Amino acid sequence: MERERERSGRTPKKGRKRRPVPNKVVGSAEAKRAGWDLEGRQPEAKKARLSTILFAENYEVTHDQLCDLLKYAVLGKSSVPKPSWCQLFHQNHLNNVVIFVLQGMSQLHFYRFYLEFGFFRKIFRHKFRLPPPSSDFLADIIGLHKKQTTGDLSRAMEESLPSASPKVSSNLQNDPIIQKYGSKKVGLTRCLLTKEEMKTYHFPLQGFPDCENFVPTKCNGSITDNSPLFGLDCEMCLTSKGRELTRISLVAEGGCCVMDELVKPDNKIVDYLTSFSGITKKILNPVTTKLKDVQRQLKALLPPNAILVGHSLDLDLRALKMIHPYVIDTSLLYVREQGRRFKLKFLAKAILGKDIQCSDRLGHDATEDARTTLELARYFLKYGPKKIAELNLEALASHQELHAAGQELRNTVEVVQQLNTSVLECLDSVGQKLLFLTQEADASELSSSKNCQTVKCFSNKEVFEQARVEIPLFPFSIVQFSFEPFPPNLTEEMNKRMKIKWTEMSTVFAGPFSKNCNLTALKRLFKSFGPIRSMTLVLETHQVQRPVTELTLDCDVLVNELEQDSENRGTIYLSGVSETFKERLLQQCNLFLGLEAVILPKDLKTGKQKNYCFLKFKTFGSAQRALDILKGKDWKLKGRHALTTRHLHAWLRGLPPESRRPPGLRVIPPPSEKEALQMLKVDHPKIAAWRWSRKIGKLYHSLGSGALCLILLPGTKSTHGSLSGLGLMGIKDEEENTTPNMCS
């Protein structure tokens, strides 16, 4: 397109009611994710992915470290440092971030009801321990408690803009924006173009001779200041019949692109206008979508009271051959003298401090332009005409002061980005908003924070139903379900029983042995299978087996499920490795296809390498082939498929000595747990774990490809003690790593 465009995304006010819009990104978005280069090169299938090995020695991820990952997921490496504890590749290919918080649950819940949390353990490859929470867990992971010495990012950007001169400031009444809108803030409906204005500026209108074949959007609902906004931008080419549509992008008010479609014109193309549209012949060749297809999709997507926002929107609607009655045109909203119009690129820089339509990029990004118009509209509504007039846009444009202002903005942004900004500020800096779904009774600083769209519900069920509707509309969502934590006495008993259970699962009876057997040789034999915590000689045993108690009755089932855990699947455990094992493995790496990482644990006291290790492979089949080789005559190692994750090792190491008991000792369930089982009934944590694992699984499967999803069990903290939390994360349809990542 010949007019200038740009991108950003403005977000809805708190309490806004929005109609559900499917998060369906089609057409050019698919081509973009497939790696179509704007210059017509062959596609590269890049996808966002997480590193296989999250950390080397740190088994616990702090709330600040988690916040660092979330900020990086929003802004990428150009604006914030990379997280120190994990690697997120191709961050720009993330489509959205969704966090499910199970308030009141902890790591103890997960392993106490491990079999019930089926979806979590089978889907998420990456698990990590969380420290016990503070009084406001969500505020910690979002970064709301971090100190701000110069205010938030958007304020710093606004204050760095050159202000109007005193002479101009004293004469604001002559500013065309003040003359049209007055000096007080205006509502959304006041920003709409009237029918007379639409007629004056050549918008397509029903009944006009040149609009006979145009399709109406059927949006005829009642318009209020709470009606939903949608940013629209189109790119066109020149055909034998004039300008025709080649791409359409529609962005919802939450910041999500709900439609991004390449379109094949009906007539012969004579000029692709690539310098403006970014569209080339090679990009359009495989496209089969026609104008009538996008007309049908747009009619289905827009609710009856939808307001379209764009820059020179009349040209977009004419390219679409559609009629829509409710529009905000940012080229007319930001009124200029003598009927002239500011370019979108200029407004984005002067108002929002953003660089768009950069010279190093071929053509405009329609989605970026649509988001920018939304943000400009929200800025106007938030700050009002007087604030706009004080910016003295005419002087900036006329006297070419934009370059100096832009340099000052860049310097300010660089300074602010070094500060401990919050996730909310990062979202605000790119014109996006955070969605927070929670129950009415839950209190968090997040719910009343700027740039957070909070929806409060009466129950977990209502939170679930709202999540199905709202998540597709927002690029960043936090969905919090609330559960009653274990009572202190029950927590203590269950904690002891769980640790005892894992100890008994790691205990083996073997025999018979004579009274004169060599204990040193015996210990050396068992040690060849892995490290031994303790050994007791029991002369009466006549077989090799685990102890049988009421705590280990499900041991075989649990061991099988542990082996199928997504983090363990594809991982093998080896015992008897030497200090030269890694070098030998690297020398013969051609034997171990699909090897992603080598984990060589070290003794925490001496720092020396232990005599066992873990190898992670891309697939279970690759792991099985490697296990056969390593247990063969050339390597002579002992091993099997892994059963435990690394954060679990740390938990087991923390087992207090007083909790251990002689193998085989029968344990009677304490009355407190018996009573809890009887009293809680359907609300029992075991049932809750099974039910909500399945429900969250449904929400997860409804997410689009490239969604970063985190499940957080924050842990609990009270005067009676604290429990560590647990985090699980993964990217929907994550691309597997093809490069071995050796970590020691």
What are the defining features of this structure?
alpha/beta; Nucleotidyltransferase, domain 5; seven-stranded mixed β-sheet; six-stranded mixed β-sheet; 28 helices; 23 strands; 35% helix; disordered N terminus; disordered C terminus
Q: Mind describing the biggest β-sheet? A: 7 strands, mixed
Task: Tell me the Rg in angstroms.
Answer: 31 Å
Assembly state (oligomeric)? single chain
Shape: elongated
Q: Specify the number of helices.
A: 28
* Measured distance between first and last alpha carbons: 53 Å
Strand content: 15-25%
What is the CATH C level class of the largest domain, in words? Answer: Alpha Beta
Helix content: 25-40%
User: Taking all residues together, what is the mean pLDDT?
Assistant: 76
Q: Which secondary-structure class do the elements indicate?
A: alpha/beta
Order of strands across the main sheet: 4-23-20-3-15-13-14
Q: Provide the CATH topology of the largest domain.
A: Nucleotidyltransferase, domain 5
Poorly predicted tracts of residues: 1-44, 54-58, 147-170, 411-419, 655-674, 676-682, 735-744
Report on the structure:
It is built from 28 helices and 23 strands. By secondary structure, the chain is α/β, with parallel strands linked by helices. It folds into 4 domains: 191 residues, no CATH class; 222 residues, Ribonuclease H-like superfamily/Ribonuclease H (Nucleotidyltransferase, domain 5, 2-Layer Sandwich); 61 residues, no CATH class; 88 residues, Alpha-Beta Plaits (2-Layer Sandwich). The protein has a 7-stranded mixed sheet with strand order 4-23-20-3-15-13-14, sandwiched between helices. Strands 6, 7, 8, 9, 10 and 12 form a 6-stranded mixed sheet that branches. Strand 21 and strand 22 form a beta hairpin. The longest helix is centred in the middle third of the chain and has 25 residues. The N terminus and C terminus are likely disordered.
